[in-house]
Amino acid sequence: MPQPFDLPPQYDPGAVEVGLYRTWMERGAFTPVAAPGREPYVIVIPPPNVTGVLHMGHGLNNTIQDVLIRFERARGRETLWLPGTDHAGIATQNVVERLIAKEGKTRFDLGREAFVERVWQFVRTTGSTILEQLKQIGASCDWSRTRFTLDPAYTRAVREVFVRLWEEGLIYRGHRVIHWCPRCLTALSDEEAEFHETTGALYYIRYPLTDGSGHVTVATTRPETLLGDTAIVVHPEDPRGAPFIGKRVRLPITGIEIPVLADESVEKEFGTGFVKVTPAHDASDFEIGLRHDLAMPLVMRENGTMGDDGGDRKGDATPRVPPELVGLDRFEARKKIVKLLDAQGLLAKTESHQHAVRRCYRCDSIVEPRLSDQWFVKMKPLAEPVLAAYHRGELRIVPERWQATFLNWMENIRDWNISRQLWWGHRIPVFTCTRCRHQWADRADPAACPKCGGPVEQDPDVLDTWFSSWLWPFATFGWPDDTPDLRRYYPGHTLVTAPEILFFWVARMLMAGYHFMGKKPFTTVYLTGTVRDTKHRRMSKSLGNGIDPLAVVRLFGADALRWTLIAGGSLGADVILDSDDLATTFAPGRNFANKLWNIARFIQAQLPAEVPRLSALDPKALTLADRWILSRAQSAIAEGTAALEQFRLDEAAKRCFEFVWGELADWYVETVKPRLAADDRVVAQAVLAHCWKTVLGLLHPVVPFITEELWQKLPGRRAGELLILAPWPTPDPRWASPEADAQFGAVRQAITAIRNIRAEYRVPPKARLAAAIRPAGHAARATLEAEHETILRLAQLETLTTDGEALEGAHAVLTDGSEVVVALAGAIDLSQECRRLSDELQRLDKQLDALDAKLANESFVARAPADVVAHERDKQQAWRTQRDVLAAKLSALGCS
RNA sequence: GGGUGGUUAGCUCAGCUGGUUAGAGCGCCGGUCUCACAUACCGGAGGUCACAGGUUCGAGUCCUGUACCGCCCACCA
């Protein structure tokens, strides 16, 4: 007897999510539990910036990780998803600098110590925000192991790594042109200075020859740097250059004399063939400067204003920046210089110019190349073991297309500038004796020089943030100590991250893993797509096109968010979301959750307190529909599991979706309703309960909240049982039944055909009709008769005969040749009926013609695999039968 | 400049090693508040799979080229 529904008809995620998450936490469901024979499965989170707030990129990336973790947890692995945050040197320092700017102060007003303390205060109060937000989307991280890259233990690891590299000779002081951010006042690595296509101007400037015989013209995008020019170069084989090589020209504005030299690096095709050389403010000019032993004067200060600022002057201390330009911002100076040049007739022309400009990845300022001294890591020795391992097949990157990009970067790896002129971060542990100039790296802060006992100074700079995050897979487990966690959870398994940090982070983690641990940090790198808006623009704060994942959680629930992200995009593909229409964008997830909720309401009402078990049933008691849905469940488990194993999360989600909605709800539940009210309802109950538990288990990784909630509401559930800890559904080959699939498929087809006729003839939904089916054979007859009741009810029939009764009405022919007639004596318009049937016949004929031609083709029959040919012949047979029956029907009706 | 991905229904996308009548969600059209669900149910329309060649018995699927869009890398100032 059906129970009254004790659930409302609409799912309210807000009412259950927080409580469920708390329950999982309290039960320690996220903490790995060792057991005999249990293999660990480890994911380390890409640590978000400690000042960060959750955006859709995090949402996507962390949902994927959570799906994988929950899947492997259910499969019995000892799963650990390790969370934490990154101190994010530049980003965090910027945030706090902006904060104190509101008080009218700069970090220099506070001083180093006070400023760092201020950042700590900020981090301590707001640093857990993003982790709390991850909880809201259901991330099942082991929060007891949360790490921060500035934790004392982690700091020890960073320092240990620096000192080891120093001892191995892999760290050196480089004197060269690096990328400098005049706003952040720090050096940047190559990766941190991002290219942006920009339309700028190409200025053609005349440099007068000192002998008065004319001038040479150079093209430049940065006229202000001419103050620091120390040569003009031209390609040695460029005929235009020959008359000038060896001569001298006068710098416009300052009148300083510089030589015209030959250098093979010049691209003859570009500009005028003559290139101005500013060795202190351009990386390639620096190389030229080295080759020709040129002076390298700095004519810009660290903050981007003009001014003599040292550099390598080769003993010539002549000021190069005229007084009227000193202190001027570089872009103001550019304008002024262009104006001056123009006034002096030295500006030949200006062209619009498309080129790539490097910008600071944190503040977007245009980066200024600048001669400077920085600490570098020699990367080649670190990259080689990774490349070797890659070629041994030890690493897997999905999607595979990223492998080429990865290899290209690794094979052409460049040394890594790791020093940053910041205050927030790991202080570089290099010490210098102010007396004897001895310099060394130290694991502890020394009180005095070990050589002469003199006073020591520590390098003022801090390390690049990535110099700490590249140790994440092992520093989080207590390295360099030999801890139980390190032994158990290193190496990890899957690393899920965005492709834009493939070089910043992933490649470097691999290098650190092999170098310091002797083995890879993870087995598979899963690179996610990018979340974009409908114009395919990356979602970003500055564009204002972002969607707040937490707003989605509030509006539609965490499961709706997760569903849309997982089912909406395939492996590594970009996910396009419409920020202007959240309701439509997240409707699939919300609707699906609601559907699950309502299926549960129904099932719950049908089940007794003691749920009958499938295994206790006599298999002979199963009906066709039972065998069919159990077969479909088996296939859903097998295919869903296989898809997850291959990281095809979307496929797994969609397959389960199809099973629960398209098969279980739309057909099985509808079929089984009368049986649930009958005396022998126990079989239907057992099948229903079995399928439902399967569904909840399969879907839990993607939509954990609602599945857990419904699982706990299932009758017969013991207190404290959690779906999150329940075993993954296992396929049972006994239930696989192609026969049941085909037979129930015929039943569905018959019902659909009748419904179709009803709709076409506008039969009122409540009208109960008579119908007759002339089955194509004995087997078909047996099947249709077995599900007689089902067809009757789902097609809204009064009577259904299968004994060849002749009815007047609308016709259909099923693919097996079975004939369906729906009695519509008065309502039938013969011409309409003829048209319907002949349209159908025409369609069939066309297909059959193509198939006939194919099978008449000797090379097809000779060359195609036998099973393909056999299959096509079967198809031909079936279509012919269907066609013949249809044609006979048409002529019987007297259609022309 | 070098790589690399995309172009399939109005929209967002599946379609894995070439072989059923190319699919889904949303949207659209028609009909239903049928006792789990109108965030639902039933029925339906809609695609010469960017274009041009080629390989093959057979191509949305493989190859070449073209066009457009995108991403990564790169010292043409």
Name the structural class: alpha/beta
As residue ranges, the low-confidence spans are: none
Determine the mean pLDDT.
91
**Percent of residues in beta strands:** 15-25%
What's the total count of β strands? 31
Helix content: 40-55%
Query: Can you tell me the overall shape?
Result: elongated
Biggest sheet, open or closed, and with what strands and sense?
A: 4 strands, antiparallel
Distance from N terminus to C terminus (CA atoms, Å) equals: 55 Å
- Provide the spatial order of strands within the biggest beta sheet: 6-5-16-18
Radius of gyration: 37 Å
The total count of helices amounts to 28
Overall description:
By secondary structure, this protein is of the alpha/beta class. It contains 28 helices and 31 strands. Strands 6-5-16-18 form a four-stranded antiparallel beta sheet. It has a four-stranded mixed beta sheet with strand order 10-11-9-12. Helix 18 (582-606) packs parallel to helix 22 (704-713). It is elongated, with a radius of gyration of 37 Å. It starts with 12 loop residues before the first helix and ends with a helix. The chain binds one RNA strand of 77 nucleotides through strand 8, strand 12, helix 8, helix 11 and strand 27.
